[in-house]
Amino acid sequence: MAVEPGAEGEGTLADRARRHIGEASALGQFFPKGYEKKMRERVRAELHDFVKAHVPEGIPVQHIVGEGTVYSTIIETARKIGADLVVMQAHRPELGDYLLGPNAACVVRHADCSVLVVR
Q: What is the pLDDT of residues 23-74, one digit of tens each?
């Protein structure tokens, strides 16, 4: 699902979160004190807004925001919560020549549960 273009840019929630988290990872030492906490709160708020706009009422949803490398955080979280299925995108748009991006490929190989990869 795509998020409508807004002041913060276009793309899926995952794309937007990846940009924010990537910025924080690469430049963390240059951000002011409390930036990471503020960013976590912002990502959680955007996730809640996305779910509210795109998931029908009555469908149970558990909001989880992880930190760390994408593939290891997904695998560890899936194990921790006893997930039956992980759903993730096939690749980043710039990896159009590949079937799977590196994170999806790693999750598919190492997850204990089924993984649905969406193009």
A: 545 555 677 888 888 999 999 999 999 999 999 999 999 999 988 899 999 9
Can you name the residues that pair with 102 across neighbouring β-strands?
none
Domain residues of the chain, as ranges?
7-65, 68-119
DSSP the chain: --EEEETTEEE-HHHHHHHHHHHHHHHGGGSPTTHHHHHHHHHHHHHHHHHHHHS-TTS--------S-HHHHHHHHHHHHT-SEEEEES--GGGTTSSS-HHHHHHHHH-SSEEEEE-
Please give the Cα distance from 84 to 106 (Å, whole number): 17
Cβ partners under 8 Å of residue 20, min gap 6: 39, 42, 43
Average pLDDT of the chain to the nearest whole number: 80
Per CATH, domain 68-119 is 3.40.50.620? yes
Q: Does pTM top 0.70 for this prediction?
A: no
